[in-house]
């Protein structure tokens, strides 16, 4: 599952009971679909600051170069979502919930002309979710 109901963002488990690290509200998935219709495939990177603060930035797929310092958290609406490794270490115990609000977002992010901006909300994983997530990640390694 890569989306959360706008009224229940805690609906966050997948079919294999491992909670995803990143999900999106219905409003965010609708905007992502619009952006994909306009720009083709897109990708996200959770900005760590600077010009646009700490915000999810949306780019045409491949327009933002990722490297060894970036962590792929998962996908939202079929689009990869990355975060810098240092920021991931700080936020690793939280699930990112990507939402949309009215207003102008980052000047480099594709949603700006739509009069909307992506916003990151978060919640701390429960002890049970954290244990399942750690187990799944250790199994992958």
Description:
By secondary structure, this protein is an alpha/beta fold. Helices cover 25% and strands 33% of the residues. The protein is built from 3 helices and 8 strands. It has helices at residues 26-39, 85-91, 127-140, and strands spanning 3-4, 22-25, 42-46, 56-60, 70-76, 79-84, 94-102, 116-124. The strands form 2 sheets. It has a 4-stranded mixed beta sheet. Strand 5 and strand 6 form a beta hairpin. Mean pLDDT is 86; it is low at 1-13.
The helix/strand class is alpha/beta
What are the secondary-structure elements, in order, as H or E? EEHEEEEHEEH
**Number of discrete helical segments:** 3
Share of residues in strands? 25-35%
Cα Rg:
15 Å
Neighbour order of strands in the largest sheet? 1-2-7-8
Profile the largest sheet. 4 strands, mixed
Task: Specify the overall morphology.
Answer: globular
How far do the termini sit from each other?
A: 22 Å
Averaged pLDDT: 86
**Uncertain residue segments:** 1-13
The number of strands is 8
Helix content: 10-25%
């Amino acid at each position: 599952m890569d989306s959360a109901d706008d009224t229940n963002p805690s609906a966050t488990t997948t079919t294999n009971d491992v909670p995803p690290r990143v999900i999106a509200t219905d409003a965010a998935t609708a905007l992502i679909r619009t952006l994909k219709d306009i720009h083709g495939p897109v990708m996200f990177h959770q900005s760590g600051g600077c010009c646009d603060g700490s915000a999810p930035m949306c780019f045409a797929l491949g327009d933002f170069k990722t490297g060894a310092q970036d962590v792929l958290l998962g996908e939202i609406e079929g689009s990869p979502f990355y975060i810098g490794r240092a920021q991931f270490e700080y936020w690793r115990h939280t699930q990112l919930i990507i939402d949309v609000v009215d207003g102008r977002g980052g000047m480099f992010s594709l949603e700006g002309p739509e009069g909307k901006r992506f916003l990151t909300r978060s919640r701390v994983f429960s002890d049970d979710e954290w244990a399942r997530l750690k187990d799944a990640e250790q199994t992958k390694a």
